[in-house]
Amino acid sequence: MSDMLCPEDEAALADTLREAAGPLQIMGGGTRPIGRIAPAQALSTRRMQGITLYEPGAMTLVAKTGTSIEEIEAVLAAEKQRLAFEPMDHRAILGTSGQPTLGGVIAANVSGPRRIQVGAARDFALGVTFVDGTGQVLSNGGRVMKNVTGYDLVKLMSGSWGTLGVLTEVALKVLPVSETQTTLKVHVTTWADAVACMSAALGTPFDVSGAATVQAKDGGFDSLIRIEGFETSVQYRACELTQRLAKFGAVDAVVDPWAEVKDLAAWADLDTVWRISVRPTDSLNVIELMQNLQQDRGFHCQLDWGGGLIWLGLEAAQIADAQAGLALHQALQRRVAQLKGHATLMTSGILRDQDLCHFQPPERTIERVSQSLRKTFDPRGVLNPGRMS
Amino acid sequence: MEMPQPNAEILSKKAKVSAALRAVLPYDAVIDDPSETRAYECDALTAYRCPPMIAVLPATTQEVSDVLKICHHEGVPVVPRGSGTSLAGGALPTADCVILGVAKMNKVLETDYDNRLIRVQSGRTNLSVSGAVEEEDFFYAPDPSSQLACAIAGNIAMNSGGAHCLKYGVTTNNLMGVTLVMMDGEIVEIGGGYLDASGLDILGVICGSEGQLGVVTEATLRILPKPEGARPVMIAFDSNEVAGACVADIIKAGVLPVAIEFMDRPIIEICENFAKAGYPDCEALLIVEVEGSEAEIQDQLDRISGIAKKHNPVELRQSQSAAESAAIWLGRKSAFGAVGQVADYMCLDGTIPVSALPEVLRRIKELSDQYGLRVGNVFHAGDGNMHPLIMFNANKEGDLELCEAMGADVLRLCVEVGGCLTGEHGVGIEKRDLMETQYSAEDLEIQMAVKDVFDPGWLLNPSKVFPLSVSQSRRAS
């Protein structure tokens, strides 16, 4: 494959797409090689950089998509603001290097633990400009907080993994940084108690902004409950929550664990990782399936979003061979389909050469509509073909 | 406002279509007597009226599917209707259409407090969704001012907002899934109890598509625990500019109120005369509401008051009780009714960057002088969603047209300063012909191409959203 194409601006990108003779692999910083990646000419937005507008008083930031998340977060931090949806950095679990970009975060709809309270990346995207598969420059949405003018293609572009167009500029809603945060750790003995504890916390009026559960060293589980805001308010809510959650296990305040929860840095050496989204209480059904299938081999598991987001991981030694890995993957997607959720294979060494669905196979009509939308935006099929399968 | 000529061939099939519909629906769910179809001749944009050919009131998703199959087969346009509260003419019929009303579909299908969601049929009213979960101290956050009457179906079609969206987001941020019936009758589930789409975010494009892509019959909605309490502070200023600067400072300070409402002098005066809310004599009034425990509320109100005092307010009144809160909100909540008492009015809905607020208010005043029509401004200042109310006399020849022309100028101004035509009401027919001021021909083409995917025959609510001249070839096909 020839060198990566890195157009400098929208016009050059449009020319490139118009003239594309074959499939292109679209990327920002290349830190999220998730999904089916067919051999193709690589095209990155990384040279299209810069924050074009930032109005802290209007909570709005507009930037070119090649701008790094690091730069955006630094500029926001200087005004005590942030990307409230807390985008995950996938470099640890995927073993990638490079800089995560705004375009990548929106194209993959990447959020973190605070998604449960404030919404996903797609909820913070106010407007997009992109180049479709024919080289047309198109815009949708705008830079204001409320906008129902025409169809919401901003949502459609978010999480479309570059299959509908190459994003060139995104307008974002940003939010103030909280004055302080406190995280309570509730030590529980079963996954069921963990999910019940997180549900109970999220069912209070105390504005929980993170609810995750990690495996503890003693074989039990630590449910982590985050509260953010002004100092006195956080103290008050921490106190109220401590009382209400004590019935699930011992409650302690802990040092901010959320970077670890968000990026799963401790999972860097695992061979295979799945990301599963279900109704929070259904996470127990998925865990039960894994327990049955893995028995003595064991598996790694972390719950986020109150149980609605399940991270499952296997060490190389926890999978017998590729056939067993494939069977496990298919069993997971089948069970998750019954639960009406979705399971994505994020990375796997052992399954690298297997023909499988990385993303949850969609229902028939959704698949037909999706294919039809892709054909509309990219009639020649040059943009990340097959990526979301 | 122009509407397409009704199709004579379709009108000639009325008896046949009625009979086919009666074969799949209970007799009284098909309304085809002209004296009765008149009940569906308009929505809340009452300046435009046209009785439909037929109205149907299905009670189940399957019945909706059956209706759409028949209309699809016969080539009859369908205009979906929630409660008919659209201010943009989203549910305005054409003479050759079938109105598909979801009013009978108002059941709660499931409440799930552990997972903080509710599933309802789409004809259920917004407020009654909150009502269904109130006893467990939960609520549904989006709160359009028509929430007593408006249906979830219409909320989804228009991606409705409300005063409290600054904190909780609009419909799209609180919608987890829908059951959608496509124009050919196919029933499809999109989203559900989980977060984020597994493939393309089709739910995201359905929400706000003004009933042009399919008919939503059921919805899964996020519900939230009710805050412990809420209280507002009222802050009066002697200029719009200063009030606007105060809003920006509150946001920059990291306080995120649930609502920041703004009223200008004409509205303050009209509301005060109408509701006797005790508003001071001033140019601009902010109502800022915060939530939490009693101590948290007091802390936030003190922070906001501290910021406001740097801007030398004419008056600052923190509510100390439920009665005082009600008094502060009384005028704001009766604003539309109060203006309706003194004049006919047109309610605009453009959104602007908050930083452009003083300039836009000044230029609206200039337009008001130029057109000789009074304008009051009442709006959600935290997110820049304006609601200029242009007052006119419907009985005076040419006044409606004058008002519409001025409204168009105000909306062009919103786009010019970096905003948009509509923040929460939708395009409907009202802003249809202004779409080209916000979007290029290519931007509109791709949106129409999305409709082609869902409804290739352009039978669903066809004469809305896009300028008639732009959608002409598709509608005629």
What does this structure look like?
The complex is a heterodimer of chains A (389) and B (477). Chain A contains 13 helices and 17 strands. Chain A has helices at residues 10-19, 69-78, 91-94, 102-107, 115-118, 121-124, 153-157, 191-202, 231-245, 258-263, 283-294, 322-338, 364-377, and strands spanning 24-27, 41-44, 51-55, 60-64, 81-82, 125-131, 137-141, 166-173, 175-176, 180-188, 208-215, 221-229, 250-254, 272-277, 300-304, 309-314, 342-348. In chain A, the strands form 5 sheets. Chain A has a 5-stranded antiparallel sheet. The radius of gyration of chain A is 21 Å and the shape is globular. The model of chain A has no long low-confidence stretch (mean pLDDT 97). With 477 residues, chain B is α+β, with helices and mostly antiparallel strands. Chain B folds into 4 domains: 8-103, Uridine Diphospho-n-acetylenolpyruvylglucosamine Reductase, domain 2 (2-Layer Sandwich); 108-225, Uridine Diphospho-n-acetylenolpyruvylglucosamine Reductase, domain 3; 230-336, Alpha-Beta Plaits (2-Layer Sandwich), CATH 3.30.70.2190; 343-433, Alpha-Beta Plaits (2-Layer Sandwich). In chain B, 38% of the residues lie in helices and 18% in strands. A 7-stranded antiparallel sheet of chain B has the order 15-12-14-13-17-18-16, sandwiched between helices. In chain B, strands 5-6-10-8-9 form a 5-stranded antiparallel sheet. A 4-stranded mixed sheet of chain B has the order 1-2-4-3. In chain B, a hairpin with a 7-residue loop joins β17 (375-380) and β18 (388-392). Classes of the chains: A alpha+beta (389), B alpha+beta (477). The interface between A and B is large, with 88 and 95 residues.
